[in-house]
Amino acid sequence: MMRHLAVAAVLLTPSAGLTDPITLIDPAAFAWETTAEGVAFAPLHGDRFQGAYQAMVRLPARTVSPPHVKSASMFGVLLQGEMIHYAGDQDPETAQKIGPGAFYSIPGGLGHVSACVSAGPCIAYLSQDAAFDFVPVTP
């Protein structure tokens, strides 16, 4: 009985075993950093050049990446705009278009193209399981 009470006390103790506080970031406070290509990243958790991270990304309308690979797998949820992501050997005309609320996953090492195909900018939440890189490839 005492063992059950001790377990219950630990489970009911606020932040038991946790060291990080709750993080809340208002969109107006996002620290957007824009690349030379016009793509902007706003860090949410972690440093994208050091290891696993979470960030917001904003692509200008009609932005099309060159074919590339990333070492780490990427996971995203599109929040605004319309995008296509397709393997480097796929015809972009046959790529599935996704809109707000859609989830996508791109395995590390897969040559692919990502494009914001909407008339306005695309904004997505991104997570990668290791550091960000962008290695151009020849299709």
TrEMBL record:
Tell me the ranges covered by the ChrR-like cupin domain, including all copies: 24-90
Q: Which InterPro entries match?
A: ChrR-like_cupin_dom (IPR025979), RmlC-like_jellyroll (IPR014710), RmlC_Cupin_sf (IPR011051)
Query: Which top-rank group of organisms is this from?
Result: Bacteria
Q: Report the protein name in the record.
A: ChrR-like cupin domain-containing protein
Q: Which taxonomic lineage is given here? A: Bacteria, Pseudomonadati, Pseudomonadota, Alphaproteobacteria, Rhodobacterales
